[in-house]
Amino acid sequence: MGCNRLEGKVAIITGGARGIGEATVRHFLSHGAKVVIADVRDNLREALCHELGEGTSYIHCDVTNMDDVHKTVSFTVEKFGKLDIMAIFGGFSTYAYACSKTAIVGLMKNAAVEFGIRVNCVSPYGVVMHLTDGLVPVEVMNLNLNFEDLMSKVGNLQGVVLKAEDIAQAALYLASDDAKYVSGQNLFVDGGVTIVNPSLVMDYSSLLGQA
């Protein structure tokens, strides 16, 4: 695998101003891509673009607004002459997150078939970022466990903590020519949780019972 796996590529990364999206922006840039950050966190624009340099641009984009999406694509093509990659990250409430992830996998598979292009998903285990604030039950918080500690305790793979950079690495693989014949796939980055299929509710109860 080369050092610049995205050399000459142009990418749009939605939700790229923070969290997993930001980690992916940094990872793509380090591998030679030009990146347009599409986000609604306009207050982060100046600092991000200054830090990341000329290979990066920012545009306000609410992915629920199709006009914003069309403008983002047009902006990218006008600035860089083409568009090779779209990496879509976004935030949802806990309930909406679960529903949306199920729907996204179906949409991904349909798009891969309908358009004849590479379309894939990454499904991660719990990773610490701003969206995880408030997701740990009060009872667990009283045990002085933060979100990362909790995910480590109820996870299947022991001794390893999932980071945003790990998700970015998976996205890099799928976006690069290393995955040139990979399409319609949902790549689990979950330490084997989907193999054992744990119930977090049961694990919470077990964890509290052992405390």
From TrEMBL:
InterPro entries: NAD(P)-bd_dom_sf, Sc_DH/Rdtase_CS, SDR_fam
Stored Gene3D superfamilies: NAD(P)-binding Rossmann-like Domain
GO molecular function, one term: oxidoreductase activity
Keywords assigned by UniProt, alphabetized: Oxidoreductase
Similarity comment: family membership: Belongs to the short-chain dehydrogenases/reductases (SDR) family.
PANTHER family given in the database record: 3-OXOACYL-(ACYL-CARRIER-PROTEIN) REDUCTASE (AFU_ORTHOLOGUE AFUA_6G11210), MOMILACTONE A SYNTHASE
Entry protein name: Uncharacterized protein
Natural source organism: Amborella trichopoda
